[in-house]
Structure formats: C-alpha cells, structure tokens
Amino acid sequence: MTQDNALLAPSTGYLLLALFSILWIGLGLYWGRRNKSFEDHALAGRNVGLALGSATAAATWITSNTTMLAPQFALQLGVWGMLAYSTAAFGLILFAPMAKRIRKLMPHGYTSGDFFRLRYGRTAWAIFLVFTLFYSLTWLVSMAMAGGILLEALAGIDYVWGMTVILAVCVIYTMRGGLAAVIGTDFIQSLIIIVGIVAVGFAVLQNVSVDEIHANLSTSKPALLDVLFPAAIMAIFNNLLFGLGEVFHNNVWWSRVFAFREGVGNKAFLIGGLVWFPIPIAAGFIALASGALGVGVPSPDMVGPLVIANVLGEVGAVAIFVIVFCSLASSIDSLLAATSDLVTEDIYRRLLHPAATPEKLKKVAQTVTLLLGLGTWAVCVPRVGTLASVLFFAGPLVGAMIWPIVTGLYWRSANSVGAIGGMLLGGGAGLIAYFQIGWFVASTVGTAVSMVWVLACAIFSRSFFDWKMLKEAV
Amino acid sequence: MFSADFLTMLVYGSLIWCTLSAIALGVMLLRDLLRGESW
Amino acid sequence: MAPLLFSASVAFAAAPEITSGHELSSDTGHVLVAWEADGPATLSISRDADLGDAQPLYQGNQQSYFLSGLESGEYYLQVVEASGARSQPVRLSIEHQSLTKALWLTLIGAIITLGIVVVIFRGVRR
Predict the structure, then answer these.
(1) What is the ipTM of this complex?
(2) Entry pTM
(3) Which end of chain A is more exposed for a tag (fewer CB within 10 A), N or C?
(4) A418 with A145: CB under 8 angstroms?
(5) In 3D, which of A458, A429, A387, A356 has the Cα closest to residue A163?
(6) Of the partner residues A45, A191, A201, the one whose CB lies closest to the CB of residue B22
(7) Domain definitions of chain C by residue range
(8) Exposure of A389 by Cβ count < 10 A (0-12 exposed, 13-18 middle, 19+ buried)?
(9) What fold is seen in the domain C17-95?
(10) Whole-angstrom Cα distance, residue A322 to residue A324?
(11) CB distance from A199 to chain B under 8 Å?
C-alpha cells in the first residue's frame, strides 16, 4: 500500500506511536520498581487480583489477528466465519477449571515446562520445548510483522521503522517491568480495544442498518449467509481445537495461573473468555457492511480499516490505528515475558544452573527478553511474506498437546509413552494432513490422532502417578 | 440462510455484550483497588 | 504532424485487461480480481457469457477487488473503462467444497471437543 493510499498522515501516525510509547514505557518503569527477584519479575508477586487477571486474559488473547483478521474472516466465510472465530474463547473458558487444578498441584510452579518435566520426564519435556518454542516464536514474528505492515498501510510509516518501534517499546517495558508491567498495561489496552470496537460498530450502524446489510448480502454475497457453507463449517471445530491447544500448552497462560492470587485463576479465565467471545463478531460484522456501504475492497486484509475510514473518516483511522497498536502490544509483551521466563526457568535454571540466585535469574530473564526482541527483529526485517503463515503449521503441533496435558492433570494413569507418542504422532499426522488435505483439517487431525494414542496408553497402562511429585519446592 | 433477525441479534448482542464487559472490568478494578486487592 | 501523433497515441492505448488469469476458480466462493486499466473503470459480473445482465461490482481507480460470498456456478467478469474500452471477459468457476466432507469433519471435531470437556469436568480419577 503506498503512502498516497494510507488512511492517516505519517506525522499523525508517528505522534500516536510516540504518545503511547511514552505511556507504556513510563508505566513499565514505574511498575518494575516493585520487582526484586525472578519470582517478582516472572510472576508479579503471585497475588494478581480478579480485575487485572480477567483483563489480562482477555487482552492477551486479543491480538491484531482478532481485530484485523476477524473482519477478513467475515468477508470470506460469512456469519459462520465470525462464529467460528469466536470459538477460540473456549480456550480460555475451558482452561478456567484447569487453572484451579494446576495451582493446587503445583503451588511453587513457574512454567508449563515445569509441568511436562515433572509429570512426564525429560524426553517429553524436550519435545514440549521444541513445540512450544516453535509456536511462540512464530507467533511473535507474525505479530511483529503484522505491526510493521499495518502501520505502513494505515499511516504510511515505513515497514522497518514501524516494526522496530513496536518491538522496541514492548521489549523495553517488558524487560524493565516484567509480568507486572505486562498485566498492568493489558488492563488499559483491553479497555481501549473494547471501547474502540464498540464505538466503531455503532458508527457503522449509524450509516447502514442490519436489514440493509442483510439485503445486500442476499443479493451479491449469498454464500456468506448460507447456514451450510462448507468451508466455514469446517473452520468451526478446527479453530476451536487450535485455540484449545494454544491456551492449554503455552507458558503465556500458565505463567498467569501462577501469578494470580489463590482462588482467582478459575474466575479470571472464565471472565476473560466471556469478555473475549463477542469481540470477533463485533469487530467482524463491519466487513459484511462493506457492500451495503459501497466500499470496494482491493485486498481482504484491508476490509476492516477501509470500512472504518468510510464511516468515521480520520477519526476512524485514528481509532483503528490505536486499537491495532494496543492489540499488538498486549500480545507481544505477553509473548516476550512468558517465553523469556520459560527459557530462564526451564533451560537456564533447571538444565544449566540450578543454584542460580533469584536476582541472577531476574537478570537472565531480562537479557533473554532483549535477545528475543533482537532475534525477532532480525527475522522480520527482510519481510519474508510467507513467514506469517508458518504460524499455521503450529496448529497440529499444539493440538497434539491437548490430550497429554488434560489427561496428565486429571488421570494418574496417563503416562510418558502416551504423552510422547501423542505429541509426535499427532503432530506428524496433523502436518501431513495440513499439506495433503488443507489447513482446515490440520488441527482436527493432529488432536484426533494424539487423542487415540494417549487414551490407548492410559487404558492399558500400569502407571499410577503420585501427584505429590508436582509439588517441587523452590 | 441466516435471517436478518438473527444477524440483528448477533450484531447488537455482541456490541452490547462488549459494552457490559468494559463496564464490568472497570467496576471490578475499582472494587479491587478499594479493597487493596489489585495485585 | 498533429494528426500523425494523435493516431499514434490512439494506436498505443491498450484495452483494459484482467490480470488475475484467463480462467479463475475457487472452492470457497471468494477470489481476488486484479486488472490494468487507464483511469477509472467499472468491474462487472454476469451469469451470461455474453455479459447480458452484467451487474456493476465496483467503479473507481483501484486496480483490484475482492469478490466473496458467491454460490457455486459459472460467472463472467469484465472491466470497462470510462472511455468505453472493454476487457476480454474472464470466466470464474465456483464450486464449493463437499458439504458431506465438511459435516463429517465437524462431527469428528465435536466428538473430540466433547471428550476434552468430559475429561476436564469429570476431574480427578482415583
């Protein structure tokens, strides 16, 4: 998209970037002062309350995909497309009871890696680390790239500059402030995002009614209203299982379980999921209005911003810019924090330097955050377009981890052979399905194959896991 | 085919739900802050 | 002199052209159509090969348009410039994926999800 087509002047874009950067970094420095040890840095004191807990669950799960891809999904796959996207909320909702169980089983836990190591042993732990780092790093890279691309499309800001600023701001306040800064900024970001989406939604409805949208779709885009639209129906459970896999395995969510006060986790994830559920619909439906509004869409990924600019002009352009920037920041900071904590705890402490002091570990975590930021930046600079789609390969891998985790938390009979086989067979089968059949079956196949293996091993197993082994002391 | 009524319910329902969520989060934070239980 | 230049410029003015391909197809009902044209142009769609009842989709300066939500069938697309110059019509075939396959996959996905829910809510097994 050229500078001429951008919705905002670059100077406005830079001004907005600067204002929010100062805000986030300032808050990060302020909240970072309370962190003394690695535990403070990584887990914000293990005492986060319900309001901040719910908001961080929702905000972290709202990525730029939610705000920009939801309209695109709606335009491509219609009503079922929006509903299929919303099913990702079940990742948070179903994780709620698991959060309570995890907290009870592992009162001194730090990461999801700790769980795999203690529950299933080193081999499973190694496989888990490979899968989760692949997923986390591709997610981080895709977010950073999306940031650069969007800032360029919205305000004509050069891709490398935009991407660099977003990454740099997130790295700085995450390094200095740790999980506390991430959670605190998440609350503000979540409110901005939700208010923005609601304001935009009502603005669209001022210009065109739902009846008019429906009439326009019936004549020119009838498949979008089809109750039996095949591609859209397939997306429903594939998306749901991808979402379950992402939340159940990743340290972004497990670190919050350990950071929330006792008794808060269950409710926070449930509320977070309920807050998230309507967002893909509220953000997505505006794309369905594009025809009725007479907005020609030159490329599906721009439908959201184009409709907003059409109904709200420059104010709308500012709104989408701010919403997107907040949703990017709220996810990138969480990924940086959780991944650096995973590397510090699982690799640095547990594998290499078990006797490291809490202060030392905090410094290591900060250094790893910086290195992650630099590494991501280096990968994003050449702007290899296909990189963003590499994230979708993670679908079968994360799907294959669902059954090992869920049975590992609740069944004594779940064992290492089941977990290792489940992850490898499920991941492999899912990837084959991805390339041989299509993206829309990959997560389903990966989860299904993993499920069969894990269940078989548990049924025929003589294992009887002692839950006390998870209560590893600090 | 999804009806116009269904689409109306989805769209307005989601916008109202989002509004209530934002209010709920704000109220919850105030309550936590007043009790000193924010974090 | 002037008439020679005038006729030369007319000779070099090319008709608009849809650049996405001569034959387009989709199994999801959506496709991105791109074209080259001089100045503002109109993209139209029709179910007839002779573009009898062509409906305008887009009119303006952009050079691409994302078409979606089409049901299975044959369609014909054409770009017409303001000057009246017309592009070659392009045929678009839409054939949606198998509904049976989609429903089977949905059923499998639903069973797996139900299984997960059951394990979580049954809780700890002694």
Answers:
(1) 0.95
(2) 0.91
(3) C
(4) no
(5) A387
(6) A191
(7) 17-95, 98-126
(8) exposed
(9) Immunoglobulin-like (2.60.40)
(10) 5
(11) no
